[in-house]
Each structure stands twice: as C-alpha cells, then as structure tokens.
Amino acid sequence: xxxxxxxxxxxxxxxxxxxxxxxxxxxxxxxxxxxxxxxxxxxxxxxxxxxxxxxxxxxxxxxxxxxxxxxxxxxxxxxxxxxxxxxxxxxxxxxxxxxxxxxxxxxxxxx
Length: 111
Description:
Strand content: 25-35%
Strand order of the largest sheet: 1-2-3-4-5
Shape: globular
Largest sheet: 5 strands, mixed
Distance between the termini: 23 Å
Oligomer: single chain
Radius of gyration: 15 Å
Structural class: alpha+beta
Number of helices: 2
Number of strands: 5
CATH architecture: 2-Layer Sandwich
C-alpha cells in the first residue's frame, strides 16, 4: 500500500474513534464525512441552540501533497499526538489550523 493509502486508513480509524466519542457526548447530530477521492475526513455536529441552527466542524483532516493536514482539532490530547502514536512522522503532519509563520516553532511540517 502506498503512503497516501496508509494515511487514509489511519485517518479513517482516527475519525471513527472520535465519531463514537462525540456521538455519545451530546445531543447534537454527529456526522462522519469521509471523502476518499479528495482525501478529506471530517466530523461535523449539527443542532439547535434556542432559535439558532448550529453547524460545527469538530474534526477536519486531509491528505495533501503526501502529508496529513490537520485543519481543525478541538481534542484535548491533540490529533497530531494521536497520529504520531499511529506511526506517522511529525515531518509528515501539518498543523493547518496554525498560522504558517508559527509552524516553524513546532516539531511538525511547515507545509
């Protein structure tokens, strides 16, 4: 299996793990979105807050240029830590939610 395929399988496992967690945590509708063609993996939550409709991206990961991009990460443990525990090298992980100018101060890829 090529690296993109390996990363896709890892991201699906991570999304599945957090999907189960988010689904049990609150009364919103939790949706798992997996797009193998464009390599985007997300969890979104939808629901009502009084008279306002809320849609929130709980987790958003993608594979671009052979690296894993973390677009949104509200987890306490940090998805980057989960990915490194799964065997992904820090140099293959981009913290997309951080400004490009700040990424140089992390052990992860700049882009």
